[in-house]
Amino acid sequence: MTTRSHATEESTRWLSDREQCLWRNWLTAGHSIDAGLARQMQQDNAISMADYMVLVNLSEAPDHRMRVAALADRLQWDRSRLSHQITRMRNRGLLDRETCSSDGRGAFIVLTDDGFEVIRDAAPGHVAAVRTMLFDVLSDEQQEQLADILHTVNAQFKDPASDPQN
Predict the structure, then answer these.
(1) Rounded to an integer, what distance in angstroms lies between the CA atom of residue 73 and that of residue 98?
(2) How confident is the model at residue 3, as a pLDDT?
(3) For 100, which of 9, 82, 106, 131 could close a Cys bridge (C-beta 3.0–4.6 Å)?
């Protein structure tokens, strides 16, 4: 066991001081923005960011409905987490669950009128908070650089088979 651990230690490409600083700044910025957005959403709209994420995805979907599996994939959540979130939101009247007529095992999650009203009311404050916490502190050039960087980082996580450009 010690040999394996020692071999791993020797083969690890440790972060340089600059990389370590950059990595920690990335984490701090992400956590700070996430926490700030969550506070804003709770204070202004009495909903969680998880609620908002589900609502915004459904509000943008055709007929305000999505298959459970598609929503889980879009949110990058496991089905158990999504199932619990859906139950809580259904209990508050924000969404409904409908069976899929073409596939008895599948289900759609559907935004209710109340859910649409909540997302419509929450979106302007959320956009203002995003603008304040991210875009207003960056120059146009920095925004372009960040967009390029994020495109490069995110490209490694995309499935080439699902990319319409391939």
Answers:
(1) 18
(2) 53
(3) 106
pTM summary value: 0.84
Tokens of 27: 């984490």
Give the domains, in start order, of the chain with CATH numbers. Answer: 47-134 (1.10.10.10)
Q: What is the pLDDT of residue 166?
A: 45
Say if residues 86 and 111 touch (Cβ distance below 8 Å): no
Residue ranges in the chain whose pLDDT is less than 50: 166
Helix axes 49-60, 79-91, angle to 10 degrees: 90
> Under 8 Å CB-to-CB from 123, ≥6 apart: which residues?
56
CA angle 156, 158, 163 (to 5 degrees): 130
- pLDDT 10s digits, 131-158: 999 999 999 999 999 999 999 999 998 8
Q: Tell the burial category of 45 from Cβ atoms under 10 Å away from its Cβ (0-12, 13-18, 19+).
A: middle
Task: Tell me if 59 sits within 8 A of 132, measured CB to CB.
Answer: no
- Rounded CA gap, 152 and 166, in Å? 17
